[in-house]
Write a structure and sequence with these properties.
The complex is a heterodimer.
Chain A (H helix, E strand, L loop, with lengths): L1 E8 L6 H4 L2 H4 L5 H4 L20 E4 L11 H8 L4 E4 L4 H10 L3 E3 L10 E5 L4 E4 L4 E4 L6 H9 L2 H8 L5
Parallel strand pairs in A: 1-2, 2-3, 3-4
Antiparallel strand pairs in A: 1-5, 5-6, 6-7
Helix pairs in contact in A: 4-5, 6-7
Chain B lengths: L4 H10 L8 E5 L2 E5 L3 H10 L11 E4 L9 H17 L2 E2 L7 H7 L8 E5 L12 E4 L2 H10 L1 E5 L3 E7 L8 H12 L8 E5 L1 H5 L2 H9 L8 E3 L4 H9 L18 E6 L6 E3 L7 E3 L10 E4 L1 H4 L2 H11 L9 E4 L4 H9 L2 H8 L2 E2 L20 E4 L15 E4 L2 H10 L11
Parallel strand pairs in B: 2-3, 2-5, 3-4, 5-6, 8-9, 8-11, 9-10, 14-15, 14-17, 15-16, 17-18
Antiparallel strand pairs in B: 1-7, 12-13
Classes of the chains: A alpha/beta, B alpha/beta.
The complex binds iron/sulfur cluster (SF4).
Iron/sulfur cluster binds next to helix 10 of chain B.
Chain lengths: ~170, ~425
């Protein structure tokens, strides 16, 4: 899977309340509408700055906090193609894969806001076009995660396979 | 090589010998969804083309985050949950029965040795009852209702022994705040934690649940307490006979073992805006308080209300402070009524709300004003958490919150205890 886009850089410990405030998740199940509030508490104008396929880049422990799947869904619906962070919180990590939002763990120090990136997801290779450097990810996806991502998410995976398979 | 509690529970549910690091498919014993996550799970279940829920009597849907509904959006989501429960025969809470984790435990759905998932990050709470429980998202709740199973990576286990007699005015909340400050927000990511030691053994189930509730604030997947007479007693009180729990093997392999002595621990406070920003109360400068909140799945249990009443009895809440108290469940509320705790709270000038999440997540009651300082017994103090990103949230024990509500500033509860 090859993904290309511009980086939006964030810091450490970006929690799910910052991604989408709790007050919106009770309003509806309309994710197009909710995605307008992505990162609203950090940057009220953020939604307007996104171009399709842009990439979120962050520090450690991205997605900590609640189990709300609305967080990765809202990121996905906002048009973001991938999140790269030094590390992810556990539930957020699983939720993202399940809704078909790819994630990659890598050292993000050499990626700045606005850098153009080209990423080979399953090879774990990030090419920073702007800086002309390549960053390698150390993490690998277990087979079952690759299958879920390739299917486009957990629903599609289960529809195809009928059950969990290892 | 011996096994940890987590490895034993996963082996039992995968029907084969598993060890930390293995990717497995495991059968689930019980599932939970609350009103922030169930509606999406229902939508996903329908997308999957689900026609029946596996073991529906072991699935509990809870309306707690926004009860009674503050607007038509929430009311409609609750309606969706009710219709789903009716159609597929799952359990659902009665109106205002309480916060999901407390009700789940009171209904006896989390038993020693069981494997439980819930679409809420604080599902780890049930580890207080010697089971493995962990939070997942809505899609996985849907997948689990559809298949009865889920895939897991068996976590490695960190053992935390806590010894020493708790000093006066220091309670289990102070222990877990101290641990979160020590390990930090991502310090135990993906780990299972086994707790033991004389302090842990001395704690009530209520006190243990406060600790397991917050293990996710260090990134952990689960926190598991030992099985003992107190666990048995808990189940006896809800009409269930359970004689055995799961113990780790003597030669179990731990990723690391930590020993803490808490004999000199002080009351702890987490300052805004992260849970791991923890200080002993003596190191905190004067902080004026505008709102105080006692409740939640962390500290809304009977023991917590008793602590609060101990401080508030015969006192008045400071005139600049809004004190809100939310019992975690109706069962607790009724017992608190019997014991006269609710009368104590009302006489002191508190507002007592219906059981549920209350102001914890900012979806309805008790939203603070701009620039206000809040002291709360909840488990999170993120910016915007209580519905206003211009408020500042401090976390502490029910004793500390009650004492602070009286003085109007963050106060060491030992001033009020003789
Ligand atoms: S009380 Fe707070 S932390 Fe607990 S389930 Fe409710 S919203 Fe979540």
């Amino acid at each position: 899977m090859i993904l290309k886009g511009k980086a939006h850089k964030f810091g450490d410990d970006i929690n799910t309340d910052y991604i989408i405030s709790g007050k919106y998740k009770f309003k509806s199940l309309d994710f197009n509408e909710m995605s307008k509030h992505l990162f609203e508490d950090l940057d009220p104008e953020f939604y307007k700055k996104i171009n399709p396929d842009d990439i979120i880049v962050a520090g450690k422990n991205f997605g900590c906090g609640s189990s709300r799947e609305q967080a990765p869904l809202v990121i996905k619906y906002a048009g973001i193609s991938l999140v790269i962070a030094k590390s992810f919180a556990r539930i957020f990590y699983r939720n993202s894969i399940n809704v078909g939002l790819p994630l990659l763990e890598a050292d993000t120090d050499e990626i700045d806001n606005g850098d153009e990136l080209e990423v080979d997801l399953f090879q774990g290779k990030i090419y920073n076009k702007t800086k002309n450097i390549t960053i390698l990810s150390k993490s690998t996806f277990p087979d079952i995660m690759v299958k879920i991502l390739q299917a486009g998410g957990l629903v599609e995976y289960l529809k195809k396979e009928g059950d969990f398979k290892i | 090589m011996g096994k940890t509690i987590a490895e034993k529970i996963f082996s039992n549910h995968a029907n084969k010998d598993v060890k930390a690091g293995d990717i497995i498919i495991a059968k689930l014993d019980a599932l939970m969804g609350q009103d922030g996550t169930s509606p999406l799970a229902i939508k996903v279940f329908e997308e999957l083309g689900g026609t029946r829920v596996i073991n529906p009597e072991k699935v509990l849907l809870v309306m707690d985050h926004s009860v009674p509904p503050p607007n038509e959006g929430v009311a409609n989501l609750h309606k969706l949950m009710r219709e789903f429960a009716e159609k597929y025969g799952t359990q659902i809470t009665e109106f205002g029965e309480g916060v999901c984790h407390q009700v789940f435990m009171e209904r006896g759905l989390a038993t020693p040795g069981s494997l439980v998932i819930g679409a809420d990050s604080h599902t780890c709470t049930y580890g207080a009852l010697n089971c493995f429980s962990t939070g997942v998202g809505s899609s996985e709740l849907a997948a689990a209702m559809y298949t009865g199973k889920l895939w897991f990576k068996v976590p490695s286990t960190v053992k935390i022994n806590i010894n020493g007699k708790l000093p006066k005015g220091v309670v289990s909340k102070d222990i877990i705040l101290y641990l979160v400050g020590y390990f930090k927000a991502d310090g135990l990511t993906y780990k299972a934690i086994e707790f033991d030691g004389e302090t842990i053994r001395d704690l009530s189930i209520d006190g243990r649940a406060t600790i397991t509730n917050m293990v996710v604030e260090m990134g952990a997947k689960a926190g598991i307490m030992p099985f003992d007479e107190k666990t048995k007693e808990f189940f006896k009180n809800i009409g269930i006979v359970i004689n055995n729990g799961i113990e780790a093997d003597k030669d179990a392999e731990y990723e690391s073992i930590y020993n803490f002595d808490i004999s000199n621990l002080e009351p702890q406070v987490a300052l805004p805006h992260t849970v791991d920003n923890v200080y002993p109360i003596s190191q905190i400068e004067k902080i004026k308080i505008h709102e105080a909140f006692i409740g939640t799945c962390t500290n809304g249990r009977l023991e917590d209300l008793r602590y609060a009443a101990q401080i508030l009895k015969g006192k008045k809440v400071n005139k600049n402070v809004k004190l809100i108290i939310t019992p975690a469940s109706k069962r607790i509320y009724m017992q608190a009524l019997k014991e006269g705790l609710i009368e104590t709270f009302l006489n002191a000038g508190a507002v007592v709300t219906n059981p549920g999440c209350g102001p914890c997540v900012g979806t309805h009651q008790g939203v603070p004003a701009d620039g206000e300082n809040v002291i709360s017994t909840a488990n999170r103090n993120f910016k915007g958490r209580m519905g206003n990103n211009k408020a500042l949230i401090h976390l502490a024990s029910p004793l500390t919150v009650a004492a602070s509500a009286i003085k109007g500033e963050i106060t060491d509860p030992r001033e009020f205890l003789d």
